[in-house]
User: Fold this.
Amino acid sequence: MDRSGTVVRKPRNDVGVDVRNFLAGGFTVVDGDGRRGRADGRLDGRDNLVKRSVEPLGFLGRDIAESLVVRFRNHERVPLRERVGVQKRQRVISFVNGVARHVALDDRTEHAVGHTPPNDRPYQKPPGPGSISEPGTPRVAFLARWPYVGPMTFEFDPAIQTTWFHSPLEDFEEVSVETEIREDPLTGRQSRIVSENFVRPEGDPDIEGVVGDSEGCFFCPEMVTDATPTYPDWVGFERGEWGEATSFPNLNPYGDHSNVVVLTEDHYVPIDEFTVEQFTDGLAAALEFVGAAFESDAADEYASINMNFLRPAGSSIIHPHMQTLIDECGTNLQADRAQAARAYRDEHDASYWDDLLRETTETDRYIGSTGAVEWVAPYAPKHHRHVRGVAPGVDVPDPTDPVVEGLAAGIANVLQYYGSAGHNSFNLAITFQDGDLSNPPVIDLIARAVFEEYYWSDSPFFATLHDESVVDVPPEDYAVEAAAFF
Assistant:
């Protein structure tokens, strides 16, 4: 690969191109012997060929498909349109409502016929997985509409961008730095993996002066019943009590129904000392309120249980607590996931989460299980050391459902891992959708900047304005570390 990021190979007549990556700005090259290469950046002639091709190809007939072949000559990339043979068993893409989806074809071989789209179609970058090409004599991924057959197969193939410069750290020798760009296979949301971008303080942070001061804390046991609100009559009780946990309405609600769950009696608990029992009781207290809200308001469909721990995670109160939100619209994350998961189910007659777990359990990103909950490191992490748990086939659980203890056990395991990695602050979110098994309970945990006297914010412009994640450790690396705690 040269310094511009272009794949340099000896000239050959034709190589297969994965159209999914081609449209996204990079593509996977598959030689006849099955070896892969990557090329990133925009292809010559892309404006003339690709930008007009995306939308029309979503409704091509059975015997018409768009095919692309890239010809490498003298290190130049020139897209061509040719009549080529395609093996229909390979996985290809269809577009449904502008979203890239995979379909599997039967074993027959037909020819893909070039199609000339109109000139006024806008280019839309399709979300979805990375490479879908398979090894073999030049194969060409194409777009068409055929029914899905069999379980979904994901291939995760990130784009690599390379930057070159003369570094003062290397006596101004020319060096290169790679940035890895990944897309969430459900939502298409991008994440960037950039090494050494997480600032870690030297030594153990001294925070005792902050976390040890409980004076005036209205979440502590001696004040919680005097300083917190009580539920309205329709809930059926004034406050919820489960073990150490106490729940009550949120004085600053975020939606139709919003509460707070004080998780522990202790004012401060180190990140790696939370117990399974504490989270089991805390989640039960939250779910008790969720059940009451769903029963009271038929319009409500979405619920989430959330936690900010210490100031880098956005918490203004040191005392460990969670916050629950129930309403009819959900957050952006919930709405996007629900829409994409339903579209996947409608097209493939299968659960996205079931298929994703089936694929992930065979990779380095699989972490382990706690009861009915499967834990993975997401392919495109939302933040540092992102760990996700999924409870497939489960609706919104009752407070005493065994899956609640499974969630709690996984949380405690992840937090022990975070502590071992030098983190002391985290965020947690569990999402639920009432009555839709295509969108089961999903829990996400992320590590935040280390809390110390002069801690730094790890939510720069990328996260706050561009809605794009930047992490420093690939999930394949930290999943292995986290798995040791399961």
User: Anything to note?
Assistant: The radius of gyration is 25 Å.
